[in-house]
Write a structure and sequence with these properties.
The protein is an alpha/beta fold. The chain is built from 15 helices and 10 strands. It folds into 2 domains: 245 residues, TIM Barrel, CATH 3.20.20; 69 residues, Putative flavin oxidoreducatase, domain 2 (Non-ribosomal Peptide Synthetase Peptidyl Carrier Protein, Chain A, Orthogonal Bundle). An 8-stranded parallel sheet has the order 3-10-9-8-7-6-5-4. It has a two-stranded antiparallel sheet with strand order 1-2. It binds flavin mononucleotide.
């Protein structure tokens, strides 16, 4: 696959942008385990044009993370243009526009998936963003606003004509939020439309090497994007990539390996945000890091109130002692669905 001048030598397995998740500490692990392309969390154009510190921080990345895209969203075309200029000055590899966020306060302002209800505006905005940067621009969106208005097939052609270099489609409508099952049928139709020449990346519910293979084989997409299933489980990138190359299904990480990674994740978050904030923020990620471990709930309850890294380290050690540093190889079960909020 090629996006602008970015060439992917392997079949691209891409980390989905996720607010409050895909920050630099988490991306570090996804890169380590083979994510071929990553994005920042989405950045509000309105915040960027005011140079809000938090938004600038979200765009920060390490050279080792390349290729990386900064994702922007907004409702006002002028702000989107200015935000694109500011984001481009950070020198990422690409700029991605979010037309998929379903959150009420975003869509009600006419941003994110809200633009699926105003296609002329979406097209004008995309063209303006493409013109505002020398970087390749990509778009991430959904099938349509609701069941009655799944307009992705025509929207894809119109978006391509603006000059975007790739399109990611999440196989749900805005109305579905994250419920039900992602429907890849229309993603496949867009991919197989002879008019579409840009790469089409499929997204939605890939949670194992096998689902990855199945989606690629059934729908012929140029790349796949993985979101929730990678949360607390960045090793999934390695398992998927290994399976695509060899057909071998690697076991999931052992409890001990997960505890080690979780602690390393916490330490990286501390380096960025300080101990107190990082330890509190890590609370929402324990269920993901230890997803699928039988009987983990009481241990999670022990981890939740902790406020220092020393306590977390001690508790994880205690958990390992009690559970045995068990290797979960061959336990078979996939981690299942990830967290569900945006
Ligand atoms: C917590 C969370 C935050 C998200 N934030 C973003 C975001 O900032 N930008 C975006 O385009 N999509 C965002 N998404 C949607 C994901 O990128 C992805 O499209 C969706 O989760 C479906 O893929 P999955 O089934 O692999 O998780 C978010 C999803 C979750 C669960």
């Amino acid at each position: 696959m090629q996006i602008g001048n970015i060439t992917f030598k392997d079949y691209p397995v891409i980390l989905a942008p996720m607010e409050d998740i895909t920050d630099a500490p988490f991306r570090f692990f996804c890169k380590r385990y083979g994510a071929d392309l990553m994005y920042t969390e989405f950045v509000s154009s309105e915040a960027l044009v005011r140079f809000a510190g938090k938004s600038l921080l979200k765009m920060d990345f390490d050279e080792g993370e390349r290729p990386i895209g900064v994702q922007v969203f907004g409702h006002d075309i002028r702000s989107m243009v200015r935000a694109t200029e500011i984001a481009s000055a950070m020198n990422p590899d690409l700029i991605d526009i979010n037309y998929g966020c379903p959150v009420k306060k975003v869509v009600n302002r006419g941003a994110g998936a809200g633009l699926l209800r105003d296609v002329p505006r979406m097209i004008a905005m995309t063209r303006a963003v493409v013109d505002a940067t020398v970087l390749p621009v990509t778009v991430k969106t959904r099938l349509g606003w609701d069941e009655q208005s799944k307009n992705i097939e025509t929207v894809a052609e119109m978006l391509q004509d603006t000059g975007i270099r790739a399109l990611t489609i999440h196989g749900r409508t805005r109305s579905q939020l994250y419920s039900g099952k992602a429907d890849w049928t229309l993603i496949g139709k867009v991919k197989n439309n002879p008019r579409i020449t840009i790469p089409v990346i499929g997204n939605g519910d890939i949670d194992s090497p096998q689902t990855a293979r199945q989606m690629i084989d059934t729908y012929g997409v140029d790349g796949i994007m993985v979101g929730r299933a990678a949360v607390g489980n960045p090793y999934l990138f390695h398992r998927i990539k290994h399976y695509l190359k060899t057909g071998e299904n690697l076991p999931e990480l052992s409890l001990e390996a997960r505890a080690t990674l979780c602690l390393e994740h916490l330490e990286r978050c501390i380096a960025l945000r300080g101990e107190r904030v990082a330890v509190i923020e890590m609370r929402k990620l324990y269920p993901a890091w230890f997803r699928g471990i039988p009987g983990f709930k009481p241990y999670r309850m022990k981890l939740m109130p902790l406020t220092t890294v020393a306590e977390v380290r001690h508790t994880l050690d205690e958990i390992l002692e009690r559970c045995g540093r068990s290797d979960l190889s061959g336990s078979g079960g996939e981690y299942g669905q990830g967290i569900r909020t945006e």
